[in-house]
Design brief:
mainly alpha; two-stranded antiparallel ribbon; 2 strands; 51% helix
């Protein structure tokens, strides 16, 4: 998933995702200059946020 897709999935602004991906430990990988996230990794991250 791209940064835009993650923002839509989380229902937050793209700027929030970009500004918080390191601090919130959102499971992105850098691919070239782009951030990418696997949907399953994002779901697992979301599950951990409820703890």
């Amino acid at each position: 998933m791209s940064l835009d897709e993650v923002a839509r999935y989380l229902a937050v602004p793209k700027s929030w995702v970009y500004g918080n991906w390191k601090g919130q430990k959102i499971p992105f990988k850098k691919v070239g200059n782009a951030l990418r996230c696997r949907p399953t990794d994002l779901d697992e991250w979301l599950d951990r946020q409820s703890l």
